[in-house]
Design brief:
The chain is α/β, with parallel strands linked by helices. It folds into two domains: 176 residues, TIM Barrel (Alpha-Beta Barrel), CATH 3.20.20; 43 residues, no CATH class. The strands form two sheets. It has a seven-stranded mixed sheet with strand order 1-2-5-6-7-8-9. A two-stranded antiparallel ribbon has the order 3-4. α3 packs across α5 and α5 packs parallel to α6. It starts with 5 loop residues before the first strand and ends with a helix. The site of one iron/sulfur cluster (SF4) has 12 residues, from α1.
Length: 251
């Protein structure tokens, strides 16, 4: 099973589903939210980031690089950098290696009702990979959540449905024009998939990012009403500017 590139694995997360979670962040997304907290997850390809404020100008990266004009993404400079000023986003795992990492936290999951969350980027761009890993987790008694913006064909959800305990489902705006303005795509398919997931009996928790100058205020209030009318649990995610440093570093 070929997996997409992973840009991070976060252990002991308390914000990506119930209990303590180990979160796998896959690279690649088909939205372009202007506030994105994880810009390193947008491209499906590996990327080198340079955090210039951390650089101490030691020159170690230059000394190890053999492809300065056409970076081969070998990662040698990131390993040589003593200041974490250079980072490689995009690691390739095979399924067995990833399962070994996920399995290690099972005692914590069992103690607190936690589990694994597949996220991104948009992990649902890779339904075969998510279904494979989620079914492996299911066999081993590990609960699985999927964090998604929902902008994929419903056939992708069908592939993962048998193995997923909870969908953390982003609703950024109900107004299609506003949604298009903030994310680069319209929301018809996202909302239709949400309705179909509910009809299938899937467990869903809505996540509403509250973004100034976008949906904060009346639009968020209308998403709340939408959720309450359908008895859908929801949580609001406060905007933070953590993505800005990474956005600059990736330029
Ligand atoms: S990733 Fe490799 S090729 Fe690219 S700049 Fe760093 S050392 Fe050079
Ligand atoms: S190795 Fe790191 S700290 Fe040293 S010059 Fe390169 S980026 Fe800057």
């Amino acid at each position: 099973m070929k997996l997409p590139l992973v840009f991070d694995i976060k252990r002991a997360s308390t914000t990506d589903g119930p209990g303590l979670r180990t979160v796998v962040f896959f690279k690649g997304c088909n939205l372009d939210c202007f506030w994105c907290h994880n810009p390193e997850g947008k491209s499906p390809l590996a990327q080198i980031a340079f955090f210039k404020d951390k650089c101490i100008a030691c020159g170690a990266c230059r000394r190890v690089c053999t492809h300065r004009d056409t970076c081969s993404l070998c990662g040698a400079c990131t390993e040589a950098c003593p200041a974490e000023a250079r980072r490689l986003y995009g690691a390739l795992y095979d399924a067995e290696a990833l399962m070994t990492i996920l399995r290690a936290d099972k005692p914590y999951f069992d103690a607190c009702g936690g589990g694994v969350t597949f996220s991104g980027g948009e992990c649902m761009l890779y339904p075969e990979a998510v279904a494979h890993l989620a079914s492996r987790c299911r066999e081993e008694g590990i609960a699985v959540a999927v964090d998604t913006a929902g902008n994929v064909p419903f056939s992708s959800f069908k592939q993962v449905l048998p193995f997923v305990d909870l969908f953390l489902y982003d609703v950024k705006a109900l107004d299609p024009v506003l949604h298009q303005r903030g994310t680069g795509v319209t929301n018809e398919r996202i909302l239709a998939n949400l309705e179909t997931l509910r009809e299938c009996g899937a467990k869903v928790c809505i996540r509403i990012p509250v973004i100034p100058d976008f949906n904060a205020g009346e639009e968020v209030a209308s998403i709340r009403r939408y959720c309450e009318a359908r008895s859908l649990p929801y949580e609001e995610l406060a905007y933070h500017a953590f993505g800005e440093d990474k956005r600059s570093a990736l330029r």
